[in-house]
Design goal:
2 copies of one chain form a homodimer. Chain A is of the alpha+beta class. Chain A is built from 8 helices and 11 strands. In chain A, 39% of the residues lie in helices and 20% in strands. The two termini of chain A are 31 Å apart. The structure holds a DNA duplex.
Chain lengths: 246, 246
DNA sequence: CGGAACTTTGAGTCACTTCAATCGGTGTGG
DNA sequence: CCACACCGATTGAAGTGACTCAAAGTTCCG
């Protein structure tokens, strides 16, 4: 695994030059390994680097007034979850690993230099932050739907994003999170997430075990989750290129 | 009213040059007047301009699978709600006026030219899109709290944003929306919004009539809404400069 | 083999919903 | 100048999706 996922995003806006590809393939910075459940950046911090996720999985979260942890996004390889720290000095949320993860810490100064000198790279990164916002909007909408839809939608979204960076194998991808974490992300109790997953499993729409998500019936799950991937602004919709298992 | 609110945002990141101020004060484009409840941009459109709101109020919304209109953000003068169309071709949501409004439609080409030639203006605009995302995150969190908190929070946020662009008078600002629209934004039924507003009114935390919001007890409302304005990344917190009425 | 973390099951409760009127203000046409 | 229509705010009552509490079953690990 390398910075390949970022390259795919560059190409999402059109042809890239060799210089641009070289740059993204050899980003300056320090590779770091974090344990699971480690706060890479915390609410209130003033980071001096941004983190490109190379391997593993992370989430952004806030603690609400009643003390509950509210997950606002999940992040997979190729994401730069804290790019906002380039332009906004104080963090208004935290970024934590979900599993042991490898990240590339890129100093702000280096990143700013790249942005200044390569307008098209800046364009790609800006676009990524806008898609980030589009995902938040979708979550706002989906979170007003019933639990069954929310859970199905989350699984569709995760698979689609993993697929977009080449991290799926057939109808399976990694999803190393607990039911309680799904609840934290969807505003549901762990008990209710459990019941909902059982329902989806009973309908043969998903399997979720050992940190692996399998979607035997992709169209069925999309219908269950009222999932329309347009908001992700990928080149192709989820699974459009591959047939689901019969 | 002019492009003044945008100028304030430029200054949020530091000293500005005369050229920058002149540019923002004389943005190229066409001034347009829209009726209330008019779709400026619709889901699926491919806009060729971006809209700077000069007067009035707008909202972004999506229609969820059950046919309900879900408002994902409100916009006030100084906002450019559809700046994402510069970098993402197809709209994944709609933008509509709430009241008769005046907007400046700036062609994409002109806007791109400005961004290319004025890195610091680009910086401000990028920063605004990141704050936009921060507001979405906050909504995700707040929408998992009880109705009472949600409503109070929304009112605090609106007042704080209006205050930041100089559109408040004492403890009052414009908020020309119906209770049903508040419900669409908060994921509550209009009936429940009504009861919640009565509760807040009964506690003398707010008054809301004739499209005007008055907050007699700002600290009380902030407490009720569990409102911490850090996520808005303004220069000053809501009402920090003015004492609440005793 | 004891313990920690996660999943699963059952039962009672509640915040918010839906349905159904009613009330008040405002604009319009006769 | 009034009757009607329309829209938004308000009130009442009944229903329910998801929560909390509580406990037991599983899996993994030292």
């Amino acid at each position: 695994v390398s910075t390949t996922p970022l390259l795919r995003r560059l190409e999402a806006i059109g042809a890239s030059t060799q210089a641009e590809r070289d740059l993204l393939a050899n980003l300056p910075g320090t590779t770091k390994h974090y344990d699971a459940h480690y706060d890479i950046v915390s609410d209130g911090d003033r980071p001096s680097v941004v983190c490109l996720i190379l391997e593993g999985m992370a989430c952004r979260y806030k603690i609400s007034a009643d003390g509950k942890r509210q997950i606002v996004s999940f992040h997979i390889p190729g994401d730069i979850p804290d790019i906002q720290s380039l332009f906004i000095d104080v963090m208004d949320h935290s970024l934590a690993t979900l599993v042991p993860s490898k990240v590339l810490a890129i100093p702000h100064a280096r990143m700013c230099g790249i942005i200044d000198e390569h307008p098209r790279i800046a364009h790609v990164l800006w676009r990524e932050t806008l898609i980030d916002a589009a995902v938040f909007r979708e979550w706002i909408v989906v979170r007003s739907r019933p639990a069954y839809v929310r859970v199905a939608h989350l699984l569709c979204e995760h698979f689609a994003r993993m697929d977009a960076v080449g991290l799926t194998e057939g109808d399976t991808c990694a999803l190393p999170i607990t039911q309680a974490q799904i609840g934290d992300a969807l505003g549901l109790s762990d008990v209710h997430v459990n019941r909902t997953l059982q329902e989806l499993r009973g309908e043969n729409l998903i399997r979720l075990q050992d940190g692996k998500l399998t979607i035997p019936d992709r169209e069925g799950l999309k219908a269950a989750g009222e999932f329309d991937p347009r908001y992700l602004h990928l080149k192709r919709g989820m699974g459009d290129t591959r047939a689901a298992r019969g």
